[in-house]
Specification:
Strand 4 and strand 5 form a beta hairpin. With 118 residues, the chain is of the alpha+beta class. It has 2 helices and 5 strands. The protein has a single domain, classed as Trna Endonuclease, Chain: A, domain 1, CATH 3.40.1350.10.
Length: 118
């Protein structure tokens, strides 16, 4: 497995733990369909949240949030619509969030949650 893949997997784990501690219920991890993948799908207070997780080992090449482009958000919106079409019952409220994880090889991991990006 590539180091990048391992880092991404660790970041998703940190993000899921962070959200669970904040009171979110994990509905799905790495939900896939033909058009792509959603990293995490969580729920809290009747609102379903589609979460893109971006992980970096440092901020040397920018903050993780900077990797989320307009095109990426549009794709997430399409994927979220597909998930909602299949969900029973269909969720009344949804949003898209981004979780940025900075997980250095040594030192403390930092997790940041940006709500309602799209």
């Amino acid at each position: 497995m590539a180091d990048k893949d391992d880092l991404g997997r660790r970041g998703e784990h940190y993000a899921a733990d962070f959200l669970a501690e904040a009171g979110y219920r994990i509905l799905a991890r790495n939900w896939r369909c033909q058009q792509g993948e959603i990293d995490l799908i969580v729920e809290r207070g009747g609102e379903v949240v589609f979460v893109e997780v971006k992980t970096r080992s440092s901020e040397a090449f920018g903050h993780p949030f900077e990797a989320v482009t307009v095109a990426k958000l549009a794709r997430l919106r399409r994927l979220a619509a597909q998930w909602c079409d299949a969900a029973q019952p269909r969720p009344a409220r949804i949003r898209i969030d981004v979780v940025g994880v900075i997980a250095p090889n040594r030192g403390e991991t930092r997790v940041e949650h940006l709500e309602g990006v799209f």
